[in-house]
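Example 327.
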Amino acid sequence: MTRILKIAAAQSGPIARTESRAEVVDRLILQLRAAERQECDLVVFTECALTAFFPHWWIESEEELDAWFELEMPSHSTQPLFDEAKRLGIAFHLGFAELAWENGQKRRFNASLLVDQQGAVIGKHRKIHLPGHEDHRPQNPFQNLEQRYFEVGNLGFNTWPMLGGIVGMCICNDRRWPETYRVLALGGAELILLGYNTPDHIPEHPQLDRHVGFQHQLCMQAGAYQNGCWVVAVAKAGVEEGVSQIGLTSIIAPSGEIVAQSRTLADELVVYACDLDEACAYRELFNFSKNRQVQYYGPIVDRAGIELPRDGGVVSPTSRKVLGAEN
Ligand code: CDT
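Predicted structure in complex with 4-methylsulfanyl-2-ureido-butyric acid:
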Protein backbone atom coordinates (compact mmCIF):
# COMPACT_ATOMS: atom_id res chain seq x y z
CA MET A 1 0.00 0.00 0.00
CA THR A 2 1.43 3.39 -0.95
CA ARG A 3 1.28 6.21 1.54
CA ILE A 4 1.27 9.16 -0.80
CA LEU A 5 -0.54 12.20 0.58
CA LYS A 6 -1.34 15.08 -1.71
CA ILE A 7 -0.82 18.13 0.47
CA ALA A 8 -1.74 21.75 -0.27
CA ALA A 9 0.22 24.36 1.66
CA ALA A 10 -2.25 27.28 1.59
CA GLN A 11 -0.14 30.40 1.81
CA SER A 12 -2.04 33.50 2.94
CA GLY A 13 -1.44 36.96 1.56
CA PRO A 14 -1.82 39.91 3.93
CA ILE A 15 -5.04 40.31 5.94
CA ALA A 16 -6.16 43.88 6.59
CA ARG A 17 -6.82 44.95 10.18
CA THR A 18 -10.40 45.70 9.16
CA GLU A 19 -11.02 42.38 7.38
CA SER A 20 -13.73 40.33 9.14
CA ARG A 21 -13.44 36.65 10.10
CA ALA A 22 -16.18 35.89 7.55
CA GLU A 23 -14.19 37.55 4.76
CA VAL A 24 -11.05 35.62 5.69
CA VAL A 25 -12.96 32.33 5.95
CA ASP A 26 -14.27 32.98 2.41
CA ARG A 27 -10.64 33.22 1.23
CA LEU A 28 -9.75 29.97 3.01
CA ILE A 29 -12.75 28.22 1.48
CA LEU A 30 -11.62 29.28 -2.00
CA GLN A 31 -8.26 27.66 -1.25
CA LEU A 32 -9.98 24.48 0.02
CA ARG A 33 -11.94 24.24 -3.23
CA ALA A 34 -8.83 24.81 -5.35
CA ALA A 35 -7.12 22.04 -3.36
CA GLU A 36 -10.03 19.71 -3.96
CA ARG A 37 -9.80 20.34 -7.72
CA GLN A 38 -6.18 19.16 -7.45
CA GLU A 39 -7.33 16.09 -5.49
CA CYS A 40 -5.55 17.03 -2.28
CA ASP A 41 -6.02 15.05 0.92
CA LEU A 42 -4.87 17.76 3.34
CA VAL A 43 -4.78 21.58 3.34
CA VAL A 44 -2.39 23.37 5.69
CA PHE A 45 -3.34 26.94 6.65
CA THR A 46 -0.99 29.33 8.43
CA GLU A 47 -0.40 30.67 11.96
CA CYS A 48 -3.21 32.94 13.25
CA ALA A 49 -4.86 32.40 9.88
CA LEU A 50 -8.15 34.16 10.69
CA THR A 51 -6.96 37.73 11.30
CA ALA A 52 -4.15 40.18 10.75
CA PHE A 53 -1.15 39.31 12.97
CA PHE A 54 -2.11 41.56 15.90
CA PRO A 55 1.04 40.85 18.04
CA HIS A 56 2.73 43.41 15.79
CA TRP A 57 0.73 46.13 17.62
CA TRP A 58 0.67 47.45 21.17
CA ILE A 59 -2.87 46.91 22.51
CA GLU A 60 -3.82 48.14 25.99
CA SER A 61 -7.54 47.47 26.21
CA GLU A 62 -8.36 43.91 27.30
CA GLU A 63 -11.62 44.08 25.38
CA GLU A 64 -9.80 45.07 22.20
CA LEU A 65 -7.24 42.29 22.72
CA ASP A 66 -9.93 39.66 23.34
CA ALA A 67 -11.54 40.53 20.01
CA TRP A 68 -8.51 39.07 18.18
CA PHE A 69 -9.00 35.66 19.89
CA GLU A 70 -11.35 32.74 19.21
CA LEU A 71 -13.50 31.71 22.17
CA GLU A 72 -14.60 28.49 20.53
CA MET A 73 -13.62 26.45 17.52
CA PRO A 74 -15.53 26.00 15.35
CA SER A 75 -17.41 29.23 15.98
CA HIS A 76 -20.27 30.86 14.11
CA SER A 77 -17.81 32.49 11.69
CA THR A 78 -15.47 29.50 11.24
CA GLN A 79 -18.16 26.80 10.99
CA PRO A 80 -18.47 27.29 7.18
CA LEU A 81 -14.80 26.31 6.79
CA PHE A 82 -15.32 23.11 8.79
CA ASP A 83 -18.53 22.34 6.85
CA GLU A 84 -16.91 22.86 3.47
CA ALA A 85 -13.84 20.77 4.34
CA LYS A 86 -16.10 17.94 5.51
CA ARG A 87 -18.23 18.18 2.38
CA LEU A 88 -15.09 17.99 0.23
CA GLY A 89 -13.58 15.21 2.38
CA ILE A 90 -10.37 17.20 2.99
CA ALA A 91 -8.43 17.21 6.25
CA PHE A 92 -6.94 20.53 7.36
CA HIS A 93 -4.59 22.33 9.75
CA LEU A 94 -5.53 25.80 11.00
CA GLY A 95 -3.64 28.25 13.19
CA PHE A 96 -5.61 30.64 15.41
CA ALA A 97 -5.38 32.75 18.57
CA GLU A 98 -7.14 30.80 21.32
CA LEU A 99 -8.83 32.26 24.35
CA ALA A 100 -9.46 29.42 26.79
CA TRP A 101 -10.97 29.24 30.26
CA GLU A 102 -9.08 26.74 32.43
CA ASN A 103 -9.93 26.30 36.12
CA GLY A 104 -11.82 29.59 36.05
CA GLN A 105 -8.82 31.45 34.58
CA LYS A 106 -8.68 33.26 31.26
CA ARG A 107 -5.73 32.02 29.21
CA ARG A 108 -4.41 33.04 25.82
CA PHE A 109 -2.49 30.76 23.48
CA ASN A 110 -1.18 30.82 19.93
CA ALA A 111 -2.72 27.54 18.79
CA SER A 112 -3.34 25.22 15.85
CA LEU A 113 -5.85 22.47 15.15
CA LEU A 114 -5.74 19.28 13.15
CA VAL A 115 -9.10 18.37 11.60
CA ASP A 116 -9.68 15.03 9.90
CA GLN A 117 -11.53 14.34 6.63
CA GLN A 118 -14.78 13.82 8.54
CA GLY A 119 -14.56 17.30 10.07
CA ALA A 120 -13.59 16.10 13.57
CA VAL A 121 -10.91 17.97 15.54
CA ILE A 122 -8.31 15.32 16.36
CA GLY A 123 -5.38 17.39 17.60
CA LYS A 124 -4.36 20.71 19.09
CA HIS A 125 -0.98 22.39 19.56
CA ARG A 126 -0.25 25.48 21.64
CA LYS A 127 2.91 27.32 20.58
CA ILE A 128 5.76 26.66 22.99
CA HIS A 129 8.58 28.96 21.86
CA LEU A 130 7.18 32.49 21.95
CA PRO A 131 9.37 35.09 20.24
CA GLY A 132 9.48 38.84 20.79
CA HIS A 133 9.07 40.81 24.01
CA GLU A 134 6.54 41.97 26.63
CA ASP A 135 7.52 45.63 26.83
CA HIS A 136 6.38 48.51 24.64
CA ARG A 137 8.92 49.44 21.95
CA PRO A 138 7.25 52.29 20.06
CA GLN A 139 10.59 53.31 18.55
CA ASN A 140 10.51 50.13 16.38
CA PRO A 141 8.71 50.17 13.01
CA PHE A 142 6.63 47.26 14.36
CA GLN A 143 6.70 45.08 17.46
CA ASN A 144 6.40 41.40 18.22
CA LEU A 145 4.40 41.21 21.43
CA GLU A 146 3.76 37.48 21.50
CA GLN A 147 5.40 37.24 24.94
CA ARG A 148 2.86 39.80 26.17
CA TYR A 149 -0.26 38.38 24.55
CA PHE A 150 0.30 34.61 24.75
CA GLU A 151 1.27 32.10 27.41
CA VAL A 152 3.76 29.33 26.72
CA GLY A 153 1.77 26.39 25.38
CA ASN A 154 0.90 23.76 28.00
CA LEU A 155 0.23 20.76 25.77
CA GLY A 156 3.77 19.71 24.79
CA PHE A 157 4.64 18.35 21.35
CA ASN A 158 2.16 15.65 20.40
CA THR A 159 1.51 13.45 17.39
CA TRP A 160 -1.65 11.93 15.94
CA PRO A 161 -2.41 9.11 13.49
CA MET A 162 -4.05 10.64 10.43
CA LEU A 163 -4.39 9.77 6.74
CA GLY A 164 -2.31 6.62 7.12
CA GLY A 165 0.63 8.41 8.75
CA ILE A 166 1.62 10.09 12.02
CA VAL A 167 1.27 13.87 12.09
CA GLY A 168 2.80 16.43 14.45
CA MET A 169 2.38 20.19 14.71
CA CYS A 170 4.43 23.15 15.83
CA ILE A 171 4.02 26.89 15.25
CA CYS A 172 6.36 29.44 13.67
CA ASN A 173 9.19 30.12 16.15
CA ASP A 174 8.96 26.48 17.33
CA ARG A 175 10.54 25.59 13.97
CA ARG A 176 13.82 27.24 14.89
CA TRP A 177 14.44 24.86 17.83
CA PRO A 178 15.94 21.40 17.16
CA GLU A 179 14.20 20.04 20.26
CA THR A 180 10.84 20.55 18.52
CA TYR A 181 11.60 18.18 15.66
CA ARG A 182 13.32 15.58 17.83
CA VAL A 183 10.49 15.37 20.36
CA LEU A 184 7.95 15.12 17.53
CA ALA A 185 10.06 12.50 15.75
CA LEU A 186 10.29 10.48 18.96
CA GLY A 187 6.49 10.58 18.96
CA GLY A 188 6.66 8.99 15.52
CA ALA A 189 5.95 12.13 13.45
CA GLU A 190 6.32 11.44 9.74
CA LEU A 191 4.83 14.76 8.77
CA ILE A 192 5.21 18.05 10.68
CA LEU A 193 2.79 20.90 9.90
CA LEU A 194 3.36 24.53 10.82
CA GLY A 195 2.32 28.06 9.97
CA TYR A 196 4.38 31.22 10.42
CA ASN A 197 4.37 35.03 10.38
CA THR A 198 7.99 36.01 9.77
CA PRO A 199 8.90 39.63 9.07
CA ASP A 200 11.79 40.23 6.68
CA HIS A 201 13.25 42.80 9.09
CA ILE A 202 14.42 42.29 12.68
CA PRO A 203 14.29 45.72 14.35
CA GLU A 204 16.77 44.84 17.12
CA HIS A 205 19.24 43.11 14.75
CA PRO A 206 18.96 44.62 11.25
CA GLN A 207 22.32 43.10 10.30
CA LEU A 208 20.52 39.71 10.27
CA ASP A 209 17.84 40.81 7.79
CA ARG A 210 19.67 39.40 4.77
CA HIS A 211 19.64 35.93 6.35
CA VAL A 212 15.94 35.75 7.26
CA GLY A 213 14.85 33.66 4.25
CA PHE A 214 17.92 31.43 4.41
CA GLN A 215 17.58 30.73 8.14
CA HIS A 216 13.86 30.02 7.77
CA GLN A 217 14.74 27.24 5.32
CA LEU A 218 17.89 26.08 7.07
CA CYS A 219 16.23 25.08 10.34
CA MET A 220 13.40 23.19 8.65
CA GLN A 221 15.62 21.41 6.12
CA ALA A 222 17.87 20.26 8.95
CA GLY A 223 14.86 19.27 11.07
CA ALA A 224 13.38 17.20 8.24
CA TYR A 225 16.62 15.38 7.41
CA GLN A 226 17.87 14.76 10.95
CA ASN A 227 14.51 13.36 11.98
CA GLY A 228 13.45 11.60 8.78
CA CYS A 229 10.17 13.40 8.28
CA TRP A 230 8.27 15.69 5.92
CA VAL A 231 7.82 19.33 6.93
CA VAL A 232 5.08 21.54 5.50
CA ALA A 233 5.53 25.21 6.42
CA VAL A 234 2.98 27.83 5.44
CA ALA A 235 3.45 31.60 5.45
CA LYS A 236 1.33 34.64 6.04
CA ALA A 237 3.18 36.62 3.39
CA GLY A 238 3.44 40.11 1.97
CA VAL A 239 2.99 43.57 3.43
CA GLU A 240 0.35 43.44 6.15
CA GLU A 241 -0.49 46.74 7.83
CA GLY A 242 3.00 48.03 7.02
CA VAL A 243 4.87 44.88 8.14
CA SER A 244 6.65 43.08 5.30
CA GLN A 245 6.68 39.30 5.81
CA ILE A 246 8.54 36.57 3.93
CA GLY A 247 6.68 34.08 1.77
CA LEU A 248 8.76 30.96 1.04
CA THR A 249 5.95 28.57 1.92
CA SER A 250 7.77 25.25 1.64
CA ILE A 251 7.22 21.53 1.41
CA ILE A 252 10.38 19.75 2.55
CA ALA A 253 11.14 16.06 2.02
CA PRO A 254 12.92 13.79 4.55
CA SER A 255 16.06 14.23 2.40
CA GLY A 256 16.05 17.87 3.52
CA GLU A 257 15.26 19.06 -0.01
CA ILE A 258 12.64 21.73 -0.62
CA VAL A 259 10.46 20.00 -3.18
CA ALA A 260 7.85 22.76 -3.64
CA GLN A 261 7.83 26.44 -2.74
CA SER A 262 5.60 29.48 -3.19
CA ARG A 263 6.50 32.07 -5.81
CA THR A 264 4.33 34.97 -4.65
CA LEU A 265 3.51 36.92 -1.49
CA ALA A 266 -0.25 36.44 -1.94
CA ASP A 267 -2.83 33.70 -1.36
CA GLU A 268 -1.22 30.76 -3.17
CA LEU A 269 -1.54 26.98 -3.06
CA VAL A 270 1.68 24.97 -3.09
CA VAL A 271 0.83 21.35 -3.84
CA TYR A 272 2.99 18.25 -3.64
CA ALA A 273 2.35 14.50 -3.47
CA CYS A 274 4.32 13.51 -0.36
CA ASP A 275 5.31 9.85 -0.11
CA LEU A 276 5.53 9.21 3.62
CA ASP A 277 7.60 6.11 2.95
CA GLU A 278 10.45 8.29 1.66
CA ALA A 279 11.34 8.69 5.34
CA CYS A 280 12.08 4.97 5.76
CA ALA A 281 15.70 5.14 4.54
CA TYR A 282 16.54 7.99 6.92
CA ARG A 283 14.85 6.37 9.89
CA GLU A 284 16.82 3.23 9.09
CA LEU A 285 20.13 5.08 8.72
CA PHE A 286 19.79 6.98 11.99
CA ASN A 287 18.00 4.13 13.79
CA PHE A 288 17.13 6.11 16.92
CA SER A 289 16.50 3.20 19.26
CA LYS A 290 19.85 1.61 18.40
CA ASN A 291 22.10 4.66 18.06
CA ARG A 292 20.83 7.53 20.22
CA GLN A 293 23.14 7.86 23.23
CA VAL A 294 20.68 9.27 25.71
CA GLN A 295 23.14 8.95 28.60
CA TYR A 296 24.93 12.00 27.12
CA TYR A 297 21.89 14.15 26.36
CA GLY A 298 20.98 15.03 29.96
CA PRO A 299 21.87 18.76 29.81
CA ILE A 300 19.25 19.25 27.08
CA VAL A 301 16.48 18.63 29.58
CA ASP A 302 18.28 19.28 32.88
CA ARG A 303 18.92 22.95 32.21
CA ALA A 304 17.86 25.71 29.82
CA GLY A 305 20.95 27.90 29.86
CA ILE A 306 24.68 27.45 29.48
CA GLU A 307 27.02 26.11 32.16
CA LEU A 308 30.68 27.03 31.59
CA PRO A 309 33.56 24.52 31.89
CA ARG A 310 35.17 24.51 35.35
CA ASP A 311 38.41 22.85 34.28
CA GLY A 312 41.18 23.79 31.88
CA GLY A 313 41.77 27.52 32.25
CA VAL A 314 40.07 30.79 32.96
CA VAL A 315 36.90 31.70 31.08
CA SER A 316 37.22 35.13 29.48
CA PRO A 317 34.83 37.78 30.81
CA THR A 318 33.64 38.35 27.22
CA SER A 319 32.67 34.69 26.78
CA ARG A 320 30.89 34.83 30.11
CA LYS A 321 28.93 37.93 29.05
CA VAL A 322 28.12 36.80 25.50
CA LEU A 323 27.02 33.34 26.62
CA GLY A 324 24.94 34.58 29.55
CA ALA A 325 26.25 31.63 31.52
CA GLU A 326 24.53 30.41 34.69
CA ASN A 327 27.75 29.77 36.68
N1 CDT B 1 5.38 34.43 14.65
C1 CDT B 1 6.66 34.15 14.91
O1 CDT B 1 6.95 33.29 15.74
N2 CDT B 1 7.60 34.90 14.31
C2 CDT B 1 9.01 34.80 14.59
C3 CDT B 1 9.69 36.07 14.30
C4 CDT B 1 11.10 36.04 14.76
S1 CDT B 1 12.06 37.21 13.96
C5 CDT B 1 13.42 36.28 13.45
C6 CDT B 1 9.70 33.69 13.78
O2 CDT B 1 10.37 32.86 14.40
O3 CDT B 1 9.60 33.66 12.56
